[in-house]
């Protein structure tokens, strides 16, 4: 299997101990920290926003990989930059002008990412592939952790692998939703370079995190 980045989603962490949880996954070998921001409007769930991210920032030096499931996005871009986001990923459906939004994210000093829902075709990325540093393939409908991986998204990952290789650009191809030790190898074979996992990392509590992360990389767990 190729090397992959593991980005644990703190959606499955103990929200009463978020700082502690981030320190634990950092120490357990996480490459990035995946932070899901939901507004109860773009997706049917609510999490948190820039003030919480700012308080979490001192707990890890690893990149904060922030996935915005909010609409609109543009009024909040500077707030996420100030809070310490490194990668800011948005949905084309959040509108109204995805190209302008990606440029604004880069201008604010962050890496722009685009998130693709299970029902959204891969071609939506064609006009903006030069403007993104990360493509996030949602392998569940966004909003909740603990859902099952949607197999049809493997074909989309393969399509993105081809598009990225043809672009000649260094773009992280990330997958999110239902990843575990059975689905992760299939996503890696299809071409992803980063895996987001919530339930599969946080199950069993802090003493299990290192083994859970290693299992997603396809390493033997002792
Ligand atoms: O973005 C998300 C949901 O919108 C979560 O990051 C994702 O679903 C991870 O959870 P799990 O690994 O439990 O499926």
Question: How would you briefly describe this protein structure?
Answer:
Helix content is 31%, strand content 18%.
Explained architecture:
With 222 residues, the chain is α/β, with parallel strands linked by helices. The protein has a single domain (5-216), classed as TIM Barrel (Alpha-Beta Barrel). Helices cover 31% and strands 18% of the residues. It has 8 helices and 8 strands; from the N terminus they run E-H-E-H-E-H-E-H-E-E-H-E-H-E-H-H. The protein has helices at 18-27, 50-56, 77-83, 98-107, 153-167, 183-190, 199-202, 209-216; strands at residues 5-8, 33-38, 64-69, 87-90, 111-116, 134-138, 172-176, 194-197. 42% of the residues are buried. The mean pLDDT is 97. It binds ribulose-5-phosphate (5RP). Ribulose-5-phosphate (5RP) binds next to strand 2, strand 8 and helix 7.
Biggest beta-sheet profile: 8 strands, parallel
CATH class: Alpha Beta
Task: Please tell me the total number of domains.
Answer: 1
For this structure, the CATH topology is TIM Barrel
Q: Per DSSP, what share of the residues sits in E-state strands of 2 or more residues?
A: 15-25%
Q: Could you give the topology of this structure?
A:
Blueprint: E1 5-8, H1 18-27, E2 33-38, H2 50-56, E3 64-69, H3 77-83, E4 87-90, H4 98-107, E5 111-116, E6 134-138, H5 153-167, E7 172-176, H6 183-190, E8 194-197, H7 199-202, H8 209-216
Parallel strand pairs: 1-8, 2-3, 3-4, 4-5, 5-6, 6-7, 7-8
The structure holds ribulose-5-phosphate (5RP).
